[in-house]
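2024-03-11 09:14:02 INFO queue: dequeued item Ribonuclease inhibitor, len=131
2024-03-11 09:14:02 INFO validating residues
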Amino acid sequence: MTKTFVLEGESITDISSFYDEINRVFMCDENWVIGESLDALNDLFYGGFGAISGRKNVKLVWRNIDVSRAHLGVEATRNYYLEKLNHPQRYKVEKIKSNLEKLRNENSGSTYFDLIIELINGHSNIHLVPD
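2024-03-11 09:14:37 INFO prediction written
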């Protein structure tokens, strides 16, 4: 049976508020929340915990997705990568610099929004419905 979940795009104004919205929708019955991490988001979408736990099929309606796309675009992505550079012991610095360069010079790098969409599309049990 497919369960429907709804993200409110107007609530998403930056990366932090994206995770606030994810936690509101998927972690409301848990006594903990996922952090601001694409890896954590990926784990959530595997269905091991939260509202998706044990669900085979999920319909994810993302209302006002264009608002989210704009707020999770180049500027938010640049800030995300720059923050990672402050912790070189944790992250692959050369990869981050390469991603920043693509954003800066070619405007062809993936934005944070693009990374989220790629992640969602990597889960065949999740059907994204932009609204």
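2024-03-11 09:14:37 INFO annotate: The domain at 2-73+111-130 is CATH 3.30.370.10 (Barnase; Chain D).
2024-03-11 09:14:38 INFO item closed
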